[in-house]
Design brief:
5 helices, alpha+beta, Nuclear Transport Factor 2, Chain: A
């Protein structure tokens, strides 16, 4: 009986040892590979290029229409042509119309108005902060003020929204 139990224990130990030796590690390294033979890549902040008054007005007009459509999920077909291909990436037109778009929604029944502030400007790129102000109702007080960071790109002479994300709730 002891010989049987000893044989079973030895078989289990040998099986575990064989698994350790012959089965490769399935974990993945999170270490960043560093190639000491290459020169380091340095990030340089793009040069600020002031936009013209016409460019700013066109960008604000696009952003205004986008906020009225995409943020509060009303008439979503109007916001589809105002988005860059980067923003539409991974979302079909039908998904967009169903409300599955890459902009965090603001409750439509709490929305009163919005304001914009130009934060940065590069050649063909304008960055805005968009402040959403709620209605003076219980729903509006619950939703609170929201600030979104939005970036617009000049795509073939037309300003399109490249991304919008909520930055903070006030």
């Amino acid at each position: 009986m002891r010989l049987l139990w000893g044989s079973i224990a030895a078989a289990v130990v040998l099986g575990v040892a064989a698994l350790i030796v012959f089965v490769p590690n399935t974990g993945h390294s999170t270490a960043t590979p560093i190639d000491p033979t290459k020169a380091p890549t340095r990030y340089r902040v793009p040069r600020t290029v002031p936009a013209t008054a016409g460019e700013k007005a066109a960008a604000k007009s696009t952003l205004g229409a986008f906020v009225q459509s995409a943020f509060i999920r009303r008439n979503l077909a109007a916001s589809w042509p105002l988005a860059t291909p980067h923003m539409k990436n991974g979302t079909s037109y039908h998904e967009w119309l169903a409300g599955d778009l890459p902009v965090v929604p603001y409750p439509a029944d709490a929305f009163r108005t919005f304001g914009t502030t130009l934060k940065y400007q590069y050649k063909g790129v304008l960055g805005y902060d968009v402040l959403i102000l709620p209605e003076e109702t219980a729903v509006g007080r619950k939703a609170g003020q929201e600030i979104y960071g939005c970036e617009l790109h000049d795509v073939h002479g037309k300003w399109l929204v490249d991304f919008c994300y909520p930055r903070k709730t006030l």
